[in-house]
User: What shape does this take?
Amino acid sequence: MFPGFVNTYKDNNGYIHIYFFHGIDYDGENIYNDIELSDLSMDYIKTENSDGSIDIKLNNKKIIKIHTKLVYKKDESVEHKILLV
Assistant: This one.
């Protein structure tokens, strides 16, 4: 089992990234659904890594807080997280 998570970080050029990993349960299934970006109103670059994680580079350097919803795949329950940059 590898727990899922979402986090932010700032790269060396000052761009803010959202890093999401869906997690893997004991049965080898994803813990969280894929990250939903339809409400994101700014330009971004999305990179899907070979381990299933997703790195999203936001083209706005002035963000200070990001609200996220992680939806559990099995029961559709929602976990809210506020990420500070």
In short: DSSP finds no helices and six strands in the chain. The mean pLDDT is 91. Residues 39 and 76 are 19 Å apart (CA to CA). Residues 5-84 form one domain.
